[in-house]
Amino acid sequence: MNDQERRDRTSHVAVYPGSFDPLTNGHLDIARRAARLYDTLIVAVYAFPAKNLLFSVEERLQLWQEVIANEQLQNVRVDTYKGLTVDYARSVGGQTLIKGLRSSKDFEAEFEQGLMNRKLAPEIETVCLFTNLEQLFVSSSLLKEVHRLGGDIADMLPSPVMKALQNKFGS
């Protein structure tokens, strides 16, 4: 292994992009596991997804920062971005995009997106991590809806996120 390969191996940066509205225990699980695999993990909160957002980009960023501090994930940092994910990854020296998969529907969407990203940035790999079975049915949109209707979702969200959700809905 030459010096450049050694430097590349010791400074591998992965980017975990998403809207995270709100971040769930499933997102956190993927972040924890990716943090074990890479030297640096950047949780990249997409500022303007084509979704109805409950939390602002600043709130989503703050929630991730609080959760990461609580988890003591030393090699994880949070940032926001807009535009193409691969452009953001390049700007921070990211070599890998992390994606979480729950279902075949996720796989289809991530497969298409991954191929587009490969076309746009062939030097950036996409790595998919399978969700834990406990998180298989969990999605941010489903949790927001269940909470709105009075369901108990506390065990599916990090506690700071649950508090923020309660504050949003006044419950």
Structure description:
This protein has 171 residues and is an alpha/beta fold. It has a single domain, classed as Rossmann fold, CATH 3.40.50.620. The chain is built from seven helices and five strands; from the N terminus they run H-E-H-E-H-E-H-E-H-E-H-H. The chain has a five-stranded parallel beta sheet with strand order 3-2-1-4-5, with helices on both faces. The longest helix is centred in the middle third of the chain and has 17 residues, at 104-120. The protein is globular. The termini are far apart.
Specify the biggest β-sheet.
5 strands, parallel
Rg (C-alpha, Å): 16 Å
The end-to-end distance, rounded to whole angstroms, is 57 Å
Q: Structural class of the secondary elements?
A: alpha/beta
Structure at a glance:
With 171 residues, the chain is α/β, with parallel strands linked by helices.
Provide keyphrases for this structure:
171 residues, alpha/beta, Rossmann fold, 5-stranded parallel beta sheet, 7 helices, 5 strands, 47% helix, 18% strand, globular
